[in-house]
């Protein structure tokens, strides 16, 4: 368990600080990993191996959000998913607080499929410069330009093992994103040992995002 894990701190006005949000997200993801039913392909009806790793990003975030509300109702009773951007039809993955105090876009970094074969779309999901790809990089620009009143953050959760660390991908994301927006300090928390044989470990990262300059 990381130094902050499960111990979110409250900031000014009672809002959760980003380091605590990341730690709680990682802790809740570990619980979901142990307790969730195996994911099932809607297209082929194939049932995947147990664990959160095979789940798509939207469903994984939904399940983690539910777990956070259950585990820490004092901090996350008003945590919502799919909150609309002001004046737009686009939605944001997570929102916290009445303002909201935080809005968070979430991206998954998953370098292998359930069968252990490489997934070549993982880097695109993080680093593509094209808005239609909805990458973590373009989500930063979307957040920076949005008219939300509260603070904004990008969160990346990912899976890794001894053959492929998340570090080079995260460093590449920071190098590119920092040319487009202002990134706050990197916050991180480990996912620990996960039950899936391929998606068996990982980390969660997040940065506050604001317009450049």
Describe the structure in your own words.
This protein has 213 residues and is of the alpha+beta class. 30% of the residues lie in helices and 21% in strands. It has one domain (12-211). It has helices at 18-35, 57-71, 73-76, 122-127, 136-145, 167-177; strands spanning 80-84, 91-96, 102-109, 151-159, 181-183, 187-190, 202-211. Strands 1, 2, 3, 4, 5, 6 and 7 form a seven-stranded mixed sheet that branches. Helix 1 (18-35) crosses helix 2. The radius of gyration is 16 Å and the shape is globular. It starts with 17 loop residues before the first helix and ends with a strand.
Tell me the span between the first and last alpha carbons: 36 Å
How many beta-strand segments?
Answer: 7
Radius of gyration: 16 Å
Order of helices and strands: HHHEEEHHEHEEE
Q: Which regions contain 5 or more consecutive residues with pLDDT less than 50?
A: 1-7
Strand composition percent:
15-25%
Number of helical elements: 6
Helix coverage percent:
25-40%
Structural class: alpha+beta
The 3D shape can be described as globular
Domain module tally? 1
Q: What is the typical, i.e. mean, pLDDT?
A: 91
- Largest sheet, if any? 7 strands, mixed
In short:
With 213 residues, the protein is α+β, with helices and mostly antiparallel strands. It has helices at residues 18-35, 57-71, 73-76, 122-127, 136-145, 167-177; strands at residues 80-84, 91-96, 102-109, 151-159, 181-183, 187-190, 202-211.
């Amino acid at each position: 368990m990381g130094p902050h894990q499960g111990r979110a701190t409250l900031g000014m006005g009672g809002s959760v600080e980003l380091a605590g949000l990341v730690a709680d997200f990682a802790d809740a993801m570990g619980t979901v990993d142990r307790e969730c039913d195996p994911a099932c392909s809607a297209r082929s009806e194939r049932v995947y191996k147990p664990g959160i790793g095979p789940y798509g990003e939207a469903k994984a975030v939904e399940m983690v959000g539910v777990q956070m509300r259950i585990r820490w109702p004092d901090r996350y009773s008003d945590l919502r998913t799919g909150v609309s951007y002001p004046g737009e039809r686009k939605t944001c993955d997570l929102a916290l607080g009445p303002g909201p105090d935080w809005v968070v876009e979430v991206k998954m970094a998953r370098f292998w499929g359930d069968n252990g074969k490489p997934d070549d779309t993982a880097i695109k999901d993080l680093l593509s410069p094209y808005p239609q790809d909805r990458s973590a990089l373009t989500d930063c620009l979307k957040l920076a330009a949005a008219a939300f009143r509260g603070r904004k953050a990008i969160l990346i959760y990912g899976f890794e093992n001894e053959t492929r660390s998340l570090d080079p991908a995260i460093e590449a994301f920071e190098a590119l994103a920092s040319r487009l927006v202002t990134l706050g300090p990197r916050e991180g928390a480990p996912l620990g040992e996960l039950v899936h044989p391929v998606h068996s470990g990982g980390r969660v990262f997040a940065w506050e995002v604001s317009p450049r300059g």
